[in-house]
Amino acid sequence: MNTRFLITVVSVIFLSSCSTTKTTGNDLASTTPIESQINLTKVKNDKVPVTIDPGRFTIDTVTYYIPKTVPGTYQLDDYGQYIDGFKAYDYNGHEMKVEKPDINSWKIVNAKQLDKISYLVNDTYDIEQTGGIGDETPFSPAGTNIEPNNYVLNLHGFIGYFNSLKNNQYKVDVTAPTNFVKSTALQQTGSIISPDGKSTTTSYVAPRYFDITDNPMMYGKLTVEEFQVGDIKIVLSVYSPNNLHSAASLKDAMYKMMKAQKVFLGDMNTTSRYDIFLYLSEGKKDSPKGYGALEHNKSTMVVFPEDMSDEELADSMIETVAHEFFHIVTPLTVHSEDIQYFDYNKPTFSKQLWMYEGVTEYFANLFQVNQGLISEDEFYKKIMDKIEMSLNMYDDTMSFTKMSEHVDEEPYKSQYANVYQKGALIGMCIDILIREESHGQRGILSLMKELSHKYGANKPFDDDKLIDEITAMTYPSVGEFLKTHVVGTTPINYEVFFQKVGLELVDSKVETNFILNGSDIIVGGNRQYGTIFFTDLVKDNSFWNDLGVQPRDIIKSVNGTKLTMQNADSVMQDIFSWKPGQDIEVVLNRKGEDVIIKAKTVQSYTAGNVLKADPKATEAQIKLREAWLKG
Question: Which domains does the chain have, with CATH numbers?
Answer without folding.
Answer: 22-216 (2.60.40.3650), 222-303 (3.30.2010.30), 329-502+614-631 (1.10.390.10), 510-607 (2.30.42.10)
